[in-house]
Fold this sequence. Notes:
Oligomer: single chain
Number of strands: 18
Strand content: 25-35%
Helix content: 25-40%
Strand order of the largest sheet: 3-2-1-4-5-7-6
Bound molecules: S-adenosylmethionine
Number of helices: 11
Order of helices and strands: HEHEHEHEHEHEEEEHEHEHEEEEHEHEE
Amino acid sequence: MSxxxxxxxxxxxxxxxxxxxxxxxxxxxAWLEAGEGTAISADASLLEAWRGHGRPAFSPFDDGAxxxxxxxxAGAVLFWPKSHALGEWWLLWLCTVLPPGTPLQLAGExxxxxxxxxxxxxxxxxxxxKRDSARRCSLFETRLGRVxxxxxxxxxxxxxxxLTLVSHPGVFGHGxxxxxxxxxxxxxxxxxxxxxxxxxxxxxxxxxxLDMGCGDGILAAWLSRRGAxxxxxxxxxxxxxxxxxxxxxxxxxxxxxxxxxxxTLGERRFAAIVSNPPFHQExxxxxxxxxxxxxxxxxxxxxxxxxxxxxxxxxxxxxxxxRAFGGFEILADDRRYRVYRAVxx
Length: 345
Ligand SMILES: C[S@@+](CC[C@H](N)C(=O)[O-])C[C@H]1O[C@@H](n2cnc3c(N)ncnc32)[C@H](O)[C@@H]1O
């Protein structure tokens, strides 16, 4: 099995024994998934794929990651992400969870800014040496140390819609309310009346509402404040953790789950599914998750349950809604964004 991505092709040619190493924030690559070591990633789809191959894989917010660290880690390769702030978070986190002196390699594409790690490592007082370069990628190496900086400092708070929102680099809309989400929040009171008590008001009892693609938890917190029993799902572990912290910051109840669209929901059925669906993967347009969200929604709704989504007006969701539900209505349209509603018959 040969490496598929340029960055893994660079790693493949190293004369290094990566047994017992951590692959941190790795890309999807069959060579890595068939090899040695443990994946540490915030991406639920990637974690699922590794586990599907019988490989150990943990989110950084998983107790399993701490347990794996206690079990001894020979070294770590950090795949430097496009978001520099996120790369710094991973670096500080590794310095916190792994012992000083643990070998660290940092790999990435030149166009993704890997060369900036030199400055970052210098600022942290960690030496660094270039180990290799090929395929428009570079590989640097250093050793972890105690740097006295808390990765938790990357969590930020801001106020929106009368709520305190907790966010993190790499979480959608980091630090501001999205215009589409704002339109959705203005529209929701007309279709999701405020509950007068638990289990009432949001359509039929039990008033279970799913926030799909929860980001920093703005919709989950808003819904919970109105009395809904909220379940919030996101494929990104930072988003799930942000939502957990947002709910806690506002003293609101709600369940959070890391998962790829409906993958973790089994037999659950909801009175409503509310979403500002994703249509980007990194920087590329990807309608895949949004299409699954819409097409599979009827399976996760009670009879009479509704899907309410906001989307850029140009996105091809009307076709998907018509296919899944046989019809839909447009609740709001400010020319940039539309709020759609479809009801399960
Ligand atoms: C447009 S953002 C909306 C965030 C938040 N609900 C808001 O309104 O500000 C879409 C969210 O969907 C998440 N997402 C992307 N792919 C997903 C998938 N396959 N399953 C679940 N969530 C996904 C993204 O991580 C992102 O947080």
